[in-house]
Design brief:
Blueprint: H1 8-18, E1 24-29, H2 41-44, E2 50-57, H3 61-64, E3 69-74, H4 85-101, H5 109-138, H6 152-169, H7 176-187, H8 194-207, H9 211-217, H10 236-247, H11 251-267, H12 272-275, E4 282-286, E5 306-309, H13 312-321, E6 326-327, E7 330-333, E8 338-342, H14 349-362, E9 367-370, H15 376-385, E10 388-392, E11 418-421, H16 441-447, E12 452-456, H17 462-476, H18 514-521, H19 528-531, E13 534-538, E14 541-543
């Protein structure tokens, strides 16, 4: 990472310290694979044996005075008879695409029944992918993805509980890295299973200690060498033996010491606040090889404010561009000016009726184009002058700005807008022919300084997406509408008709944190395949307090 001509590491650390203190920044990276230069992407994309999870900023790093560090997590480990996780994900995405693509040709009951059967099967498969990611792949390491507590007293309480166990058991030689990992794990233990916790404790105690101390006590072993680079290169027997020589406890006692802390936190009445504790935003820097995975819908993250970004350079650029508008870790947005483009290709009639009826009801002051494409310069003007821009159509819609700004297209906008693109794969990374890096609409919009872009990772169906998008906007955008959108009658919504002469069925609970609104909006559909497709890319955004 080059931020200047010299002292790259030092400058990089300085840049991390410039970011808002509320942010947790985590990088997910796949190891380099030389086959990237030899094979087609469709072949080497499944050749991933591990991922690197790098903590750049974290709730406990200041306490332990530790710089960014990396944990290697095994990946693609499968049980006998199971398809490797990467292979399964890409396989189901292909089937999802084919199923949705052929939906327009359904002309009898048998085909319709088969279509819904395939949709249900695909949904079960994506649920299985998420389950394997969480329980068998990341396990306890998923605790490293969580954000900082809004209530710092909870953080101090976790530190005190873990430090007490360290002191009581006499683990005086634990490294700062081990302590940081234990704080994160046990601080999230209320959301993890006992097996996930114990397995992760074992790896923290044996694989993340001081390598020099291990070399001093490592005995001869046929499969291990003192010339190791990383501790996880050693066999478990050697790691356990070295742990016992260094700490004067066997590894079983070590696991028991900290799993007892986890049990106290999981079962103790005084820790119930931890389960629903509010957290500050998480920003995931996701490697292009891992970008297709639905990280935000992992059980440990799905109720937290989470966004993605391409790399640290984009994050820093967006942050510096909008630094004067960032308050308490959030881009302070206005909700006043809204623009929309709905069904510009004129071939999604029911979607047009649904979404036009929604914006006219909930976002009455907004303006835009319905059933026709805007001129390129007007599309660009929407991105430059609106607080919120909604695109409902095929793909990401950015092609409608082609030729504007002397050929710059959407990159010629001067964005401050929250861009919501509801088309299939609207924020997917796509690869041009050859060996060019993948790109997406969000790249161009970030270059135009749009602080956040929300869209879909893969193919979706319009009715379910309309439910999600309308729910998201109704949570986030203030409205003078007489009845909460959740309570509005929608029996004839696909005809453009909504029923408002009804009693309020539920207490309206708005969400001005856009990332939390995204999280809540996923619940508007019963299809996990649709919900997990929705992601936010960019800075955390929240409507400015009046």
């Amino acid at each position: 990472m080059r931020f200047s001509s010299e002292n790259n590491v030092n400058n990089f650390l300085k840049i991390l310290k410039q970011f808002p203190k509320e942010w947790t920044i985590i990088q997910l990276t796949a190891p380099y694979n030389p086959n990237e230069n030899l094979k087609p992407f469709t072949e080497y994309r499944t050749e991933i044996s591990s991922i690197y999870l790098t903590l750049l900023t974290n709730d406990y790093m200041d306490h332990t005075d530790i710089e960014p560090f990396t944990v290697e997590v095994p990946a693609n480990i499968t049980k006998v008879g199971e398809k490797p996780l990467f292979e399964e994900l890409y396989s189901l995405l292909i089937e999802n695409y084919n199923t949705i693509e052929k939906a327009q040709f359904l002309n009898n009951k048998r085909l319709i029944k088969n279509y819904w059967s395939r949709r249900e099967d695909i949904d079960l498969r994506i649920k299985s992918v998420i389950n394997v990611m969480y329980k068998e792949w990341l396990g306890g390491w998923s605790s490293l993805l969580t954000g900082k507590f809004e209530d710092s007293a909870l953080r101090e309480k976790v530190i005190k509980q873990v430090d007490t166990a360290i002191s009581d058991w006499g683990f005086i030689k634990l490294t700062s890295k081990q302590k940081t990992l234990l704080y994160n794990l046990l601080g999230s233990s209320i959301l993890l299973s006992s097996q996930q916790i114990k397995s992760c404790i074992r790896m923290i105690l044996t694989q993340h200690g001081n390598p020099d101390e291990v070399r001093q006590v490592l005995t001869n072993c046929e499969s291990c060498s003192k010339e190791f680079r990383l501790l996880n290169e050693l066999c478990f027997e050697c790691l356990s033996e070295c742990f016992e020589k260094i700490h004067h406890f066997n590894i079983v006692d070590g696991i028991k010491a900290f799993s007892d802390v986890a049990t106290q936190i999981k079962d103790g009445d005084e820790w119930t606040a931890l389960r629903k504790a509010k957290r500050h935003p998480v920003i995931l820097i996701v490697d292009e090889m891992l970008d297709t995975f639905p990280w935000e819908t992992l059980p440990i993250l799905n109720h937290q404010p989470v966004s993605r970004i391409e790399n640290i350079h984009f994050l820093y650029s967006l942050y510096k561009e909008h630094e004067d508008k960032i308050v308490d870790g959030y881009f302070a947005a206005e909700p006043n000016i809204g623009r929309y483009v709905i069904n510009p290709d004129k071939n999604l009639e029911r979607m047009e009726l649904r979404m036009s009826s929604f914006v006219k009801y909930w976002c009455e002051s907004w303006s835009g184009h319905i059933g026709e494409p805007p001129p390129p310069e007007e599309f660009l003007d929407y991105l430059s002058t609106s607080d919120i821009f909604l695109y409902c159509g095929h793909g990401d819609g950015c092609h409608f700005a082609k030729g504007a700004a002397n050929g710059a297209g959407v990159e010629g906008a001067s964005g401050r807008t929250t861009a919501l693109l509801s088309g299939c794969g609207s924020v997917r990374l796509s690869r041009a022919p050859g060996r060019t890096p993948p790109s997406g609409a969000h790249h161009h919009l970030h270059i135009a300084s749009c602080p956040i872009v929300i869209g879909m990772l893969w193919e979706v169906t319009d009715l379910e997406v309309d439910k999600v998008v309308s729910t998201l906007l109704s949570l986030y955008v203030p409205s003078d509408a007489p009845v909460d959108w959740k309570s509005v009658g929608k029996a004839k919504w696909s005809q453009g008709l909504i029923e408002t002469s009804i009693e309020q069925k539920s207490q309206y609970s708005p969400e001005r944190d856009l990332l939390l609104a995204v999280s809540r909006a996923r619940g508007a559909t019963s299809f996990t395949m649709i919900a997990s497709s929705l992601v936010a890319r960019g800075l955390p955004v929240r409507i400015r307090d009046k």
